[in-house]
Amino acid sequence: MGQFDDKVAIVTGAGGGIGQAYAEALAREGAAVVVADINTEGAQKVADGIKGEGGDALAVPVDVSDPESAEEMAAQTVSEFGGIDYLVNNAAIFGGMKLDFLITVDWDYYKRFMSVNLDGALVCTRAVYKKMAKRGGGAIVNQSSTAAWLYSNYYGLAKAGLNSLTQQLATELGGQNIRVNAIAPGPIDTEANRSTTPKEMVDDIVKRIPLSRLGEPEDLVGMCLFLLSDQAKWITGQIFNVDGGQIIR
């Protein structure tokens, strides 16, 4: 028996990296998992892997910046599994993102970036919250970052906005017994991070982390499962650092 038996979870950006780790962990704990990603090939591979291990999963294509796409994701989830209990807003533009300044970044790129990395969490929440309420409530976890408290151009700006969005949505949705929290990881050893952040920059960051290493996707799983579970039933509107001690606030 798993702690999420008979529950249904959507994880966006679950076609690889941290999202994949979340999806697989939820499935191991008994949840039916919707592996949602704009990368349909990656999503299908993760869903097939979960099913191969005896879990229940469905790959669904989604562009989290598009309300119609998010609504279709929610509708497919309900059609397949009967409802929605949990949402993990993990999708983001990060791997291969442009490194630029706020004052010089191409404006169209900036708008696209923010439509995914900030607005996407709101778009997906709007698509699922009524369905969660019909089940008596639920829980949402947003993927923030320690970048919210550091200089990190529009990436950090999006994550700071996501922290505030978490608090605002927790206030709006609490009356429907829907909890909203966020995880703020430090630097995590993923392919997306390796392809985006220069190695010398990563090495410098690690030198200043008390636990002296990059995080792994599995380091975040425990916090995600906790925040979705009934163990956290009186926790909402909070941002939890999982960062090896990188940020003290």
Automatic annotation (TrEMBL):
Keywords assigned by UniProt, alphabetized: Oxidoreductase
Protein name: Short chain dehydrogenase
SUPFAM superfamilies xref list: NAD(P)-binding Rossmann-fold domains
Annotated source species: Mycolicibacterium thermoresistibile (strain ATCC 19527 / DSM 44167 / CIP 105390 / JCM 6362 / NCTC 10409 / 316)
Family designation: Belongs to the short-chain dehydrogenases/reductases (SDR) family.
Any one GO biological process: fatty acid elongation
Gene3D superfamilies in UniProt: NAD(P)-binding Rossmann-like Domain
PANTHER family associated with the record: 3-OXOACYL-[ACYL-CARRIER-PROTEIN] REDUCTASE, CHLOROPLASTIC, SHORT-CHAIN DEHYDROGENASES/REDUCTASES FAMILY MEMBER
Pfam families on file: adh_short_C2
Gene Ontology MF annotations: oxidoreductase activity, acting on the CH-OH group of donors, NAD or NADP as acceptor
InterPro entries: NAD(P)-bd_dom_sf, SDR_fam
Domain of life (superkingdom): Bacteria
